[in-house]
Amino acid sequence: MAPFLLLAQVIRKGECAISGIIRSEAGEVLPGITVVLEGTTIGNASNFEGNYQVTGIAPGSYKLLISGIGFTAQHHAISLQEGQQLKLDIQMKEDLQQLNEVVVEGKSIKAEIEETGFAVNVVETKKASLQSIQTNDLLNRAVGVRVRQNGGLGSSVNYNLNGMSGNSVRIFIDGIPISTYGPSFSLNSIPPSLIERIDIYKGVIPAHLADDALGGAINVILKKEMTNNLTASVSYGSFNTQQASVSGMYRDNHSGFTVRASGFHNYSDNNYEVWGKFVRNILANGRYDYVRAKRFNDAYRSSGGQVQLGFTNVKWADQFFIGYNGSDDYNEIQHGRYMSIPYKGRFSTSQAHVLNLSYQKDDFLTKGLNLSFNGMVSDRNEIINDTVKWNYNWFGEKSIGLNGDPILRPDGAQQGAPTLNHIDRNVNTFRSGLTYTFNTNHKIVFSHMFYSIDRNQQDMRKSAVEREFIGTRDLTKNISALAYEVEAFNSNLKANIFGKFYQQKIDRIDPILIKENGESRKTEDRVQSNRNTFGYGFASSYTIKPRLLLLFSAEKAVRMPSEGEIFGSPGDNIVENIGIRPEISNNLNIGFRAGPYGNGLHRFNIYASGFLRDTKDKIVQRINPRLNDAVQTDPFENLGKTKSIGFEAELKYELDNNLNILLSVSRFNSVYNLRYDANGNEYNNYNQQLPNEPFFTVNSNAQYTLNDLIQKNSAINFNYSFGFVDRFYTTWLEIEDFRTPRQFIQDVGVSYVFPNKKFVVSADARNIFDKQAYDNFAVQKPGRAFYLKINYTINNF
Amino acid sequence: MKNRFLNFLMCGAIFLAFTSCNEDDGATGPDPTNDEQWVTVAGAAMGENPGDGNGGTLIYAVSYEDAINPEVSIDVYEDGEPVKSNRTARIQVSEDGNTLFNIAYAGENGGEFSRFAVGGGASYVEEDVTVSIAQYAGTAPRWGKLYDGDKTGIAVNIADISANNAPVDENSDEKTGPFEYYRGTATILALDLQNVEISGYQQYEIPLSQEEELAGHTIFRLDAPVLNQVGNKLIIGTWMRKYDPESGDRESEWDRLGTKSVVVDYPSLKNAKVITSTVAHGDCSGYRSNVNFLAEDGNIYQATQRNPNGEGSYILKITPDNEYDNSYVFSLDEALGANDVYVQTWRYVRNGKGYVVYRKGESDQSFVALVDLNARTAKVVEEIPNDADLSLHQYQGFHVSGDNLLMAVTPIGKNGNIYVLNSQTGEVTKGAQLINKPGNHYIGAF
What we know:
Chain B: Keywords: Signal. The complex is a heterodimer. Chain A is mainly beta.
């Protein structure tokens, strides 16, 4: 088990140690409680799991002082023999007087974030990362999150947060937009073991993550351990899936010099079986031969690593790092949006080289002023390769036509026209934050993000002349946010009011040929779009009773129009609309968190939240009655309106320290919200569920721990989880054939922690009943699969 | 007509055998005693935007009597059967109205052909198996039914238009010779509608003249195939495109060539040859319906679209020896006394008469006119509502019965009617009322 891993250490001969777990009376584990030997400087604090350890103690008698804000201090007299490893679990009593003054202290980061008033969930990866699980699977278990993946490991993913999806959901790594890294360093490739936690903000996004995220933000926090450690894991499983990761941290205690390094490697053939009505070989005469087949053009490989060099906890910086992150992937693509036609030979490769600099200092210049800066310079390359011109069947063979010849693909290559498209992007991202704390009750947060991306592309399948006339696109975004945070009524009320300013500039540079007096001259056609807008919001939490918290948050959220939406696409007869406005959504969340309730043995936590997403000025393209024309016509316009109303809830149950059950439910109505036509008649689609939205999901995860079962000091964990997704229509007309099946997918796993706490071995079985699993209509996900994983950890070397 | 006569005989035989064909069960099956036929009415539902038709297609069948009866009202959106197609379906109906053919357009089953027995109302019973032409012609194919007694459908496609000197793979990035042409690969595919299977196909490049190709002209799309009178050639309409060979850019306005059609041998589908009109310069590919019709005189009449500025649509004539008759000049601008007439779709009825659906100038409003191909005259059908919201650009299907043409006319989001247009007398009567929904429109009465 993860908490115990931290305890494993090398102990010098003769020295004694004390360790144990610190809990509240309600049985909740307590982090941040200090344990010191009175009269000495020897001591330590409990970690997020409530575990503490004090080492390097000479034999003798001591008085142990255990204290934490919000709790009554305790004394324990102890006596240590030579080499003794004392195990001492401690129960803290709440100090009600103190508690009324400071509630926040003594809580995990997860609890602290989740109680700020935002509709936010924090996914901790520590336990799960010992299993063979993908980051996307972990996210999918979180309440209100639906991850829709187009197949197995490495395939494209779309995230839905409370009914908002696509480019209205932004993903960050340590607060930096994930587009800085590209597909090779993404939620598909980063293993959970390199992730500390994932914050999922729905609808309302705090200032420090400000971006034009209309529907929500997912922020992946990479591991930043503060103790010397080395962790490695390797797993192997079905479909020749191999995954390995290693991460380590070293800090020199004298100079503060710190090195953090990590690496990962993923590979899968993804050659899982598919079957059913979408899997058919088309015979020469056009008839179907339904088959059961293995995917044959779906391999995925990604590898990458990063090194951070710097100083931590030194006088001039809490953290200062300079680093490099490099990643590379290869991704075969088995099919397009639907799996009815298999591809062969379509693949993409991508690389990213990212240099970064980060700096963090509390009490910068003056007390109460905290500064953080994170800057990245990235060089991203991507190649999309699709040149195979024949049709293939599900056995990977060329489809033969009636004439006996192979049949050419209708568009020239597997997915469209043949392409060897090289896309290069230079991305610069800088985010800086300043926080000034006047006193415990008042705080000001300022955050600024600068983001620029220059894109160049060259399709090597185009003729030399054509390649000379390919344009470039440069986008620059500046997003500033200012927030004022206040705590009042003995910290029972926490409020956060914020405003955001968005500015976006796009340059379109297209080489063109000008013909004058019979002479041709190459020149540049430059167009610039400059646009800015405001947004604002509010988040608050109110503690009614010590274990009952009300949450309320709202934001006027913004999504800036994309390049295509502004400049159109001459190839598709879409003219530019320089005046297009951003999409606006009024987002609202009302919820509560309650718990833990129960006695020391049984404990419950409940979270529930209702939400509204009222989207206006949605960017759509009006129907063009002259689609038939050769001339360019309708642009994108701000015409659409949608609305999503729903709720999400999470129930957590713990039995002693052995059983842990998490159940989450999410249900919403995402509807078309344009009501009247020009004649004042109500549209048929008004208030109709938008097609292709998984609107009802239930997830559950249970874990049971048995200690000392096989060996003394060992632990064995059993895991079970299920995911339920109700059926939904994928087209406006409610045609049964275009409805997805109801899903109920179950996974089980077991992991064994060896007594030395360094080794953990886990075995997982996914989709144990080999059900046809679908995230997207007509795209089957892997069936039953088995994985084995070994984790190795050394701490405090 | 022959087919209806056969149908009559068939039902007569059934009548003798089962004595079950009587007027009382007209609601559940075809009523042969009246020589009755079904008329399938189709409506396109909106997707995200009013009038886009992307919400899918609904169909509903009524008897011919009901279709022409103004007392009857039809609401496909409430009562109709959805066609299994992700977006607007491309449907065709047999000459007797009793069988519906569909090729699903886009989506998981895009390119899938299916055949349904029309049973009246929302009853469309799938017959035989489905057949996919997606491998040959893509998931959003253009296809047409030949007027050969519902035996054959022809699907056409042009793929991968590229310059001859574009490198084939990354390694042959060296100089690949001088530019000669932009060309795509054409697919011509025959579908046996009766046995429900693909019966033949050919894939090849279709060159233009060297001079035209050097200037960057190319065939972008094929559509609207029609069989000639002898039955040995298919005439296929083209949609032309031009690239600037100096930059590779697609041009949006250029000096158009004369209207071109592709002639291929039938039934071998080989020996493609391009014929060019000197009369008009627009395309002749139609949009969602056929624009090429064989008349009793053995000539094929063809309406042009995307005409260069100011030219307006023409109806062109292709003679029985499969060449343009350039002495036949029928300008709709002249015939209608209007500027920039644009034929959105049209239908030949008989005896040299047909109806064109058109818009003019900058307006998107559709109008209907009766055309006399022999006299080269056109007369606006004034009885069709003069409504700015009437936009028939997605119109797909007409029903021809003797001299009469049945047409579903609804402005977007407004109710309308089936109109019965007598091509010989010019008489117009209102048929069944069509109940519409905001954002939706009817796209055919087949």
